[in-house]
UniProtKB/TrEMBL annotation:
<dbReference type="Pfam" id="PF16053">
    <property type="entry name" value="MRP-S34"/>
</dbReference>
<dbReference type="InterPro" id="IPR032053">
    <property type="entry name" value="Ribosomal_mS34"/>
</dbReference>
<protein>
    <submittedName>
        <fullName>Uncharacterized protein</fullName>
    </submittedName>
</protein>
<dbReference type="GO" id="GO:0005739">
    <property type="term" value="C:mitochondrion"/>
</dbReference>
<dbReference type="GO" id="GO:0003735">
    <property type="term" value="F:structural constituent of ribosome"/>
</dbReference>
Length: 168
């Protein structure tokens, strides 16, 4: 680390929401505001977490949409294959964003407790809200300053002449 704390490598024990993620090298994405040096006697108080993050349990399958179900039933009838209830679900393969790659050991997949016709009925939203905390991160930006107004693009009184274009 240079004396201005702009460049270099720092290794630290990474704790996220009360869960230990192990020793991590903060070399590529290091910024001075991202870390803080803590005295050994303050470490226990700083890392103490009253409610550690639980495991993130996601379903291992999801319900297929109704139209696709209907088409599958018709295809089974046409091919003389019996339609089974397992055909109403598809396996869910997780693709974890690299930003949350460190949480991979805590993400589990299991059979859903309640099955429905939509994945929104099966997944507990509290699981995802626990990742963000009490509120979702939202940034509101004002693109236009002032009250909303409507400006018509074309007026019925405009005399618009269309020139015919001929291809040569």
């Amino acid at each position: 680390m240079d004396r201005w704390l702009f460049g270099g490598k720092v290794w630290g024990e990474w704790t996220y929401r009360g869960r230990n993620l192990g020793v991590y090298e903060f070399a590529n994405d290091l910024n001075r505001s991202d870390w803080r040096l803590i005295h050994k006697h303050e470490e226990k108080e700083f890392t103490d977490c009253k409610e550690p993050m639980g495991d993130i349990t996601l379903p291992n399958s999801f319900p297929i949409p109704p139209l696709q179900n209907l088409m599958t039933k018709k295809a089974c009838e046409k091919a003389d294959i019996p339609f089974r209830e397992e055909m109403k679900r598809a396996p869910l393969k997780l693709c974890i964003d690299p930003e949350f790659d460190m949480l991979t050991p805590f993400i589990k997949q299991a059979e859903p407790e309640k099955k429905g016709t939509s994945i929104y009925e099966e997944v507990d939203p509290k699981v995802f809200l626990d990742l963000y905390g009490e509120e979702l991160p939202v940034k509101v930006e004002a693109w236009n300053v002032g009250p909303a107004s409507f400006t018509p693009r074309f007026s019925p009184t405009d005399d618009v002449k269309v020139n015919q274009q001929l291809s040569s």
